[in-house]
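Ticket #4471: structure output looks truncated?

Reporter: J.K.
Steps to reproduce: submitted the chain below (319 residues) through the standard prediction queue, then opened the result file.
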Amino acid sequence: MDYVNAKGHIYDIQGYAVHDGPGIRTTVYTKGCPLRCLWCHSPESQRHEFELGWLALKCIGAELCEDACIRACPAGVLTRDAPSKRTGTDEWIIKPKLDRTGCTNCLKCAEACVTKALYVSGWDTDVDTVYARLMKDAVFFEDGGGVTISGGEAMAQFDFTLNLCKKLKDSGIHICLDTTGFAPTERFAEILPWVDLFLYDIKHMDSCHHEKLTGVPNGLILDNARYLAAHGGALQVRFPIIPKLNDSPENIAATADFCAELGKAVTLVQLLPYHQAGRMKYERLGRPYRLKNVVPPPEEFMEKALEVFKARGLPCQIH
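Returned output as attached by the reporter:
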């Protein structure tokens, strides 16, 4: 099997993942996504470039580290903040204060931070390096598990994703590709032989609403789902339900109809109730969280939505 040791940007590799496809899996998270979903719980996945994160809880104080991060900043956007109490104690501590408006993203402060309170989200890698890491978990894949390539949008780093799939497939590893579906159809055609299961997002059936919620229309996404279904692809459809944004009876019914249209290619439909688990990540990256007033849908609502999919004979669950 021919593959290329393509380079890529990733921001995490998580072992023992049990929600990213069948069995016990290890998930590779690529960096960069063409969508900007309002409810995205992984904001660090959106931008392709590396980013500076700030986890104040880990800071030991500017006095103890002798202003290491402040001295490392060439732009002068890190200064001493006003004293504050260390969490859970009466001890006063002086932490750095970051002015992101002048930050050049040089990341030198993160290099200097001894506790990684200032940290970098993302790193350069290549197929061989990631493959070697994944094979350390190979024993966990023996009972129906495998590797999931996620994001961001893994198809946005197509050369890296395709060649990683090729190398994994040659080793007999089950491969899931977690995708928004927003990539050229010819790329899905090329990667299809190397993917066992597509974890495929359907966010809204109305293209105008989809664009308002995610930044892109949905025509290409729906067309790619139809293409994969017609050419032997297996799809596990994921439908996030966000109160007041895509939870209308009309959209739920239209989504169920679309999944039924794809036929036996759909192995499972997962209804994903909205949650705020990623809210703190926005604060760490210095970005506003736009859905702070949205609450998760009630369990009764999710059960009723599930019945809509069951009525169409679809295998489905609340995830």
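Triage note (M.O.): checked the attachment and the full token line is present. The two ends are 36 Å apart (CA to CA).
Status: closed, working as intended.
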